[in-house]
Specification:
Elements lengths: L1 H23 L11 H18 L7 H10 L1 H9 L2
Helix pairs in contact: 3-4
């Protein structure tokens, strides 16, 4: 019973890390100063949650992220949903 719970937890954790790596290239980040890596990781998770929450366009996380970078109206829409 406990083993199943632990495996399920780590499966979810691994999925989140994979999404962060693919969409935000987190593994390629070179932030090393003090708490910079932790701060950016926290911001990336917030951004990931905002992008997942949005259902207005049918694109993947990476596509939504690029759309938010190029389209200020879409970015404002995401930020208003906080």
């Amino acid at each position: 019973m406990i083993q199943k719970c632990v495996r399920k937890h780590w499966g979810i954790e691994n999925k989140v890390h994979w999404i962060l790596d693919v969409a935000f290239r987190e593994d390629h980040s070179r932030k090393r100063n003090e708490n910079a890596a932790q701060n950016y990781s926290c911001l990336n998770r917030i951004a990931l949650n905002l992008l997942k929450k949005d259902q207005s366009i049918k694109r993947g996380i990476k596509g939504k992220r690029l759309n938010a970078a190029w389209n200020n109206d879409y970015l404002l829409k995401l930020l208003k949903n906080i």
